[in-house]
Design goal:
Oligomer: single chain
CATH architecture of the largest domain: 3-Layer(aba) Sandwich
Radius of gyration: 21 Å
Number of helices: 12
Order of helices and strands: EHEHEHEEHEHEHEHEHEEEEHHEEHH
Helix content: 25-40%
CATH superfamily of the largest domain: NAD(P)-binding Rossmann-like Domain
CATH topology of the largest domain: Rossmann fold
Structural class: alpha/beta
CATH class of the largest domain: Alpha Beta
Strand order of the largest sheet: 3-2-1-4-5-6-14-15
Largest sheet: 8 strands, mixed
Number of strands: 15
Strand content: 15-25%
Distance between the termini: 22 Å
Amino acid sequence: MVVGVPREIKVQEYRVAVTPIGVREFVRTGHSVIVEKGAGVGAGFSDEAYLEAGAHLAAVEEVFAKADMIVKVKEPLKSEWPRFKQDQILYTYLHLAADKFLTEKLMETGIRAIAYETVETAKGHPLLAPMSEVAGRLALQAGADALCKHHGGSGVLLGGVTGVPPAKVVVIGGGTVGVNAAKIAVGMRARVIILDKDADRLAYLDDVFGGRAETILSNEAAVEDALKDADLVVGAVLLPGGAKAPHLVKRSMLKSMRPGSVVVDVAIDQGGCFETSRPTTHDEPTYVVDGIVHYCVANMPGAVARTSTLALTGATLPYGIQIANKGFEGAVRECKALALGVNLYRGKLTCKSVATAHDLPYTPIESLVG
């Protein structure tokens, strides 16, 4: 199989989908890899490193024209849609539940697409977890920066100082994103509150943090109460299966927060969990609604491209090799995790949560590949 690796063109996206080590693995197992010139530079991987690993370097047109499988990091942008060929394989993050237009346009291309975020094993979502970990930790770094007065924030230091209380940090969601956000917040000596709907999960987190973070069973009233006087709020609710995130924080709730306080919506790729959220980029990461600074960058891990690339490709490579070795249908038939990852198949929508989000027809992948 010919594997194509284009350069990511989303604003301020520096990650790359396959590292030189990944190229070496594809080549070792009998496949060829064609990489767009400069694709890895943003993450610290030179064109020479790809050549030494056995890749062929080319312009983007040749990458799409010759590849059987396109491996990316982010969803295809408008300029990339016409480059896809009927039946070509796309392996990337898609987050289609948040974008009906993109869903329909990709259906029109006739490609076969596996979304990283819906690949699922009994233990969870192995291709989402590494970026959730990065995003959770980065959320506190970004939030602390946005709180600085010169960035429009209230001028509060997360950890406080002697005689001055620390900031109040509220983390909504106790999954991978939330736990990692809370770890950094605790490490920065903030006052940390974690909300989650799962009592067992909260009991576990209570043990993990040993009393250094408060845990509260989540409901609308609890969220509203926790937001009172909050300095930084991290929205860390990501629903399984790539479903659209629920709006857990209503606009009216922002009134209880001090002007200049910050909200960071890590769920923005899936529509966001704040009613006032809209996607931003690293060029202009924040905006203000009702006096509250919103940080809603849709590709947060792209800011730490080297770390993110290494974490992501370590997880995606084994499945990519499996697809290349067995072919799309063979891999999907043999691997339940990959079958759950299929979102599009030759014009059919095969992810139930995405179909439900957009009120579009759903076709089980099993009925298409046997």
